[in-house]
Structure formats: C-alpha cells, structure tokens
Specification:
With 719 residues, the chain is mainly β. Helices cover 10% and strands 29% of the residues. It has a five-stranded antiparallel β-sheet with strand order 1-12-11-10-9, with no helix packed on it. The chain is globular, with a radius of gyration of 24 Å.
Length: 719
C-alpha cells in the first residue's frame, strides 16, 4: 500500500518565514502521529521513502517541494486525497481512521506540532499555517538497519559470522536463517557464463545477450497443453516481487523481498538454505530484479544499495560492500563479467549532488573497482547538456536493470533512466537541454568503466517515459546489433560496435514525438509540448505505465523474432514547480491516466517483430496488461503472465494460444525454464507492487480485482 498517487500529485516547497511564524499546535494528537507513523512505515515507506523523500514514481511528502503545493491548501484536502486515491492498486480502500493518522504523521514530519484535539475529516486549517516543511528534531523516521550506513569500506564476514538464526522473514535477523548444504556443487567458470549449459539459467535473461530464450525443447508446442503444476514455494509478501531465479545444476537460487536469498531443490521445491542479507521491506516498490552467480558465490544487490556475496553452497555471507557513500535505497540488478560484478543504482530523485552511477566490485574481495557516473560531473564531457544547473540540482538517470555484455567486443550495454524532475519546466531547463546520459544506451568497458559510446534515445525527455530497460544483443550477418525499447513504445535498432542508429518501429500509439529523424534517430517533440506551461495539463500517449516497461522482450533465435510485452494507455500530464533548495523532489508531475483510443479497451499487447526488418509479424491483445517478461524456447512457444493472474503460452511463430492457467495473484517477474535429472521445468512468479504498470490498470480497468497477498514461485512440468 503506499500513499502513492496522492502523491502522484504531491509537489511542494518551503513556507515563507512569515507563514512559519504563524504556526500553532496542529489539529491532531501525538497518538495519531504515533499510529500514523507505524502505518506509514508499514504501508507507504516503500514508495515514498523512509524519510518521506519520495521516489521517481512517488512524490515526496515532506520538505520544500511538498509545501509549495500543499501549503496553501486545507488539511481536509490532503486527507481527502489520501482517502480517495490510496493505495493506488486499491483506491478508496482505507478506513477514515487510517487516513487521518497518515495525514497527522505527514503534517508532523513537515514541522506541525501535535495538540490536544484529534484530527477530523472536516479540518479546515491551512497546512502552511501549521507546517513549514522542516522535520522536527528527533522526530524523523527510522534510519535503516544498524551497522549498514554509507561507509565506503567492505565488510568481510566470513563463514562463521552469521547474525542470528530464525524463521523466514524474521525481522532484524541477518545471516543464515536456515542452514543446509548444496551437495556436489560445480563451480561456475567464466566460460559457463559465456556459454551457459542448456539446462541452466545462470544470468538475468539466461545469456549475456539477454535473449530470454532457452534451447530446451522437451516441452514443445505439441505437448505443452499437458503441463501440470509440480510445486509451489511461498515467497515473502513484503516488498515488490519482480525477481528472476538463477538455476544451476537443478538448484534454484531465489531472491525474495526483504533481501532474503534461498536455495531450493528445483525438482521438489525443498528448501536447502536461506539467508537474510539486508533490511526488511514494506509493500510497494523495492523489487530486487536479479541476482548473479560466479564460481562458488551468489551476488545480491540489496535494497539499501549494498553488494553482498554469499557462499552458493551454504548461504554464508562472505563480504558486504556499500555501493553508495551514504545510505541509499536501490532496486537494481547485477551481472558478473570476468572477475567483477557490476551493479546499477536507483533512488536518485534527490537534489543532493551525489548523482547516480554504475559500480563494479571485485568478486573475490568486494573492493570497488570503478564507478561510472550517469550524470557527468561538472567539467566532464556532457556536463554542458544540463545547462547552467549546478550539480546539486541534477537528479535521476538511474540504472535499475542490469546490463548485457558482448564478450567479443568486451563491451557492456546499459540503459539509463530519465532525468528528474521529469519535465524540462520543473528542471528549469529548455526541451533542447539533453541532460546526458538520461534515456541513453551507454556502452562501457567492463574492466575500467570507460565510456566507449552512447546513443540518446530521448534527448530532454519530459514525461517519465524512460529508456532504461534491457538491451538485447543480436547478430544478423556481419551486423552486431542492439535492440531496446522504452516507455514510449518504440523499438530501437543500433549498431553495437559504434552506437549508430539503424532503425526504429513504433509498437504502440505514441503522440509525444512528431517524427524520428530517419538518419540520426533523433526524435522531435510536438510543437505544443515545446510550448507547454507549468500547472497546465497536456495529453500524451503512452502513459507512464509504459508502452514497454521492465517486462523484458525475448529473442527467439530459430525464427529471428523479438517477442515484446506491451501496454496501451494514455495520460494527461501536468508539470509542477520545484523548489531548487529542496532535497526531496521526486518526479514533480501529476498524471491522470486514460484509456488509449483505437484499441477496443485492450491494455495488454504481446507482439512479435522481425529483427531484420522490424515488421510486426503477429500480435495478441487483451484487456489485462502483461506483467512478466516474455520467455521463449526451442520448443516453439513463448510464455507470458498478466495482472489478472493468468499464465499464457503461445505458438511463437503464429501467436496461437496453446495453454493457459490461473495463479494466486498477479503473474509478475521474469519466468525461466531449466532441467533437472533430465526433465524440463518452467518457473513462474506471482507478485505485488511495482508502480505504474499496476497503478494505471487500477484506474482504467477497475473491474480487474487483484489479491493483495500471495507472492510465490510456481513450477510446472509435463506429467
């Protein structure tokens, strides 16, 4: 539950000294604040931050930018918006007491003082007369887990330093919670990562090229109709679940919310060992999307931006290194290349001058090897694309999905998210300020982090339509290609040696750009977008649900098809003003989500595109949007899951439906297939949380009812 779409509108700034001087005790009690704090930390902090600082998709609830919008408004308006729109996936489901307590806590965190009278729904007090946007001293939210600040050193823990035994999900325990041993473990050598065994799934996307394709064919288009459920493993219901399992020699390594890593027997679902390697997480955001394996180690990028190495045999924590120099939230994935593990970073929607970056760590020692900043430092090439903004007012450019890798060229390819605040007006720039390396593909040398080339897909992007997602590497003849697609729903084709633009294809209706230059690939905004104003809505398609989002495409090698999960919705977007002195800025935009015209109400689209010509070969559309990556195999089928709890399998050549089943809650995450003892299995996750891909359907398809528990791993096989 998060306070998320209140706060998809919330923006704000500092009350003037005159207003602050008028403050009197607020119309709420200390008891309401205490109850509201517990409610917030349990249900809202995952989206809006422990310190109410906001995230890219969820606005800040404290500080100058918050007060800019809410200072002139009445307390009852804030309470009413919370009650009407929260949580985003189930609006209007909060009771009045919960809404009032949450409101009281937000007011208190903005400097309002408790009084003797309880807050009621009729409170007409103007927020700016009781709050000034400044947190009370000693009244902040919890500051994370003890002993895990932003210190830049490596914590070497070793085999005997577990932090306590306990049951799965036990709060405050760190270390091995369930002891066990993977028998007959075989070390994962670098050559195995370059050429994974057919029955393994060693990398996010299965191979370095991110094909999400398996050469297994025991389950094929003819017998897939006979699939049966073999076993289910319940996962922690805290946090978002958008994970991908790693499978080696029939053992599944699974990252669950709240930074829990487990080793499971892929044949039976039996737990072998379990380790808690990071802090608890609340429902909402925070899904760890991928882990990595190399030699005898599992690498977990934690939700508080640490890289942690575990022993793959028994789960012992080997070392723990913070990626950031200060406490930092993150939901990024990782990839092992040679003797380094690379990790992205999120949670950069703040005016704190730190910026965002990709980090590399030595897999043996945990020492940081290099860091590549996705916002150039002042004086570095590209810094001029941020105009005259000081470093402190340059934010965003997260890398929240792990990159891909070409061993022959020795280059790793990463997508970079949008700059923040979202809109050029909120950033106090023009639409022609490119803000590198936002919305770009960057090609890096994995040994030292040096930039080989970049291509910016959306210069000056201003509607939270980021291009951060997977880069799929395909060879066609002599051409070494990179394919990607972002929220604008455009499929991009680049030469991965040089970054040269080779073509693009609009896969859903997009109205942001008038045209894309056929030679350079540079898009041009509509004229009315170039002339848009603060606080005035403008209609664009797609919405921030994304024409294409984190749900990864699959490259089916035998047919040369890219199978892409897509979504179809639009929005009215309003850019909001930002206080440049505020730290917490978030996206600083309001969105009203709307159906996409011309699609008969179908939000979900799965389509296949010829990688050589970019022509659409087939498509399947339905009301419910798809919330998993696509998975294809040599058996001739492609699997996809949706928000309405269904798993679908289609013929990869024609799009004909072959099989379907329904699970406990929304099917979400990155499915995999593997073999154990000569039998092929399919593993699919159900999950909660995740921002716009779930919140938009709640608005435009409210008839789809989604259970709010039931995160699990389901494994299917033939009789």
């Amino acid at each position: 539950m998060g306070l998320s779409r209140l706060l998809v509108s919330v923006l704000l700034v500092v009350a003037t000294p005159e207003i602050a001087a008028q403050q009197s005790p607020g119309a709420f009690t200390a008891g309401q604040v205490q109850t509201g704090r517990a409610f917030y930390e349990r249900n809202c902090a995952a989206c809006h931050g422990v310190d109410l600082e906001g995230s890219g998709d969820a606005p800040p609830l404290a500080g100058g930018t918050f007060m800019l919008k809410w200072g002139p408004k009445m307390v009852s308006e804030l309470f009413g918006l919370i009650l009407e729109t929260m949580p985003p996936a189930r609006p209007q489901s909060l009771d009045e007491a919960a809404g009032l307590n949450a409101t009281a806590y937000i007011l208190q965190r903005n400097g309002a003082r408790a009084g003797n009278d309880a807050l009621t729904a009729a409170a007409t007090t103007r927020i700016g007369t009781i709050a000034n946007g400044q947190a009370p001293s000693g009244g902040g939210a919890a500051q994370g887990r003890g002993g895990r600040g932003g210190a830049a050193g490596t914590i070497a823990l070793g085999a005997g330093t577990t932090a306590g035994q306990g049951q799965s999900g036990a709060s405050g325990k760190r270390g091995v919670a369930v002891a066990g041993t993977v028998r007959n473990y075989v070390a994962v050598a670098p050559e195995m990562l370059k050429n994974p065994p057919a029955g393994d799934w060693l990398i996010f996307g299965r191979n370095y090229q991110r094909h999400s394709y398996s050469p297994l064919d025991q389950i094929n288009r003819d017998n897939v109709k006979n699939l049966q459920l073999k076993w289910v493993w319940a996962m922690n219901d805290s946090g978002a679940n958008q994970t991908t399992p790693i499978v080696h020699n029939g053992i599944i390594y699974l990252a669950s919310p709240s930074n829990i890593v487990q080793a499971l027997d892929g044949r039976t679902g039996d737990l072998i060992w379990e380790t808690r390697a990071g802090p608890d997480q609340a429902p909402g955001y925070g899904g760890i999307r991928s882990i990595a394996i190399a030699e005898d180690k599992i690498f977990l990028p934690t939700s508080d931006a640490h890289m942690v190495a575990l022993n793959a045999i028994d789960g012992q924590i080997l070392w723990d290194t913070p990626a950031s120099d200060k406490p930092h939230p993150s939901t990024s994935g990782d990839i092992v290349i040679g003797d380094k593990v690379l990790m992205g970073l999120t949670g950069c929607a703040r005016f704190d001058g730190e910026g965002c970056y990709i980090s590399a760590f030595d897999i043996h020692s945990g020492q940081r090897a290099w860091r590549f900043y996705t916002i150039p430092r002042e004086g570095q090439p590209g810094s001029e694309t941020w105009g005259s903004l000081p470093m402190n007012n340059r934010a965003g450019t997260e890398t929240w999905l792990a990159g891909s890798y070409d061993p022959e060229l020795n280059l790793t390819y990463w997508g970079v998210a949008q700059s923040k605040p979202w809109n050029f007006l909120s950033r106090k720039l023009t639409p022609f300020d490119k803000t590198l390396y936002a919305n770009s593909t960057v090609a890096l040398n994995p040994e030292n982090g040096e930039l080989a080339w970049y291509f910016q897909h959306a210069p000056g992007e201003s509607f939270d339509l980021d291009e951060v997602f997977e880069r799929v590497l395909v060879d066609i003849g002599d051409r070494k290609l990179s394919f990607s697609a972002g929220k604008a729903g455009v499929l991009w084709k680049l030469d991965r040696r040089t970054g040269q633009y080779l073509g693009s294809k609009e896969m859903v209706k997009q109205t942001v750009w008038e045209r894309i230059d056929p030679k350079t690939g540079t898009p041009r905004y509509r004229t009315d977008i170039l002339e848009m104003q603060l606080d005035k809505p403008i209609h664009v398609c797609p919405s921030t649900e994304g024409g294409k989002n984190w749900q990864a495409m699959s490259y089916h090698q035998p047919t040369g098809l890219l199978i892409v999960p897509l979504s179809q919705s639009c929005m009215e977007f309003t850019a909001l003003p930002v206080d440049p002195k505020s730290v917490n800025v978030g996206g600083s935009g309001e969105r009203k989500f709307l159906p996409m015209p011309g699609v008969n109400g179908n939000i979900g689209k799965l389509a296949a595109y010829d990688a050589e010509t970019l022509n659409e070969v087939w498509k399947y559309e339905q009301r419910a949007p798809f919330l998993t990556a696509a998975l294809s195999t040599a058996g001739g089928w492609v699997l996809i899951g949706d928000i309405d709890r269904r798993v679908h399998i289609f013929d990869v050549r024609t799009g004909q439906a072959l099989w379907e089943t329904r699970l406990g809650t929304s099917v979400q995450g990155f499915p995999v297939t593997y073999s154990a003892d000569g039998k092929q299995y399919i593993a699919v996750m159900t999950g909660l949380g995740g921002g716009s891909p779930r919140n938009v359907p709640a608005v435009i398809a409210p008839e789809i009812k989604i259970p709010q528990s039931g995160q699990a791993l389901y494994v299917f096989g033939l009789p």
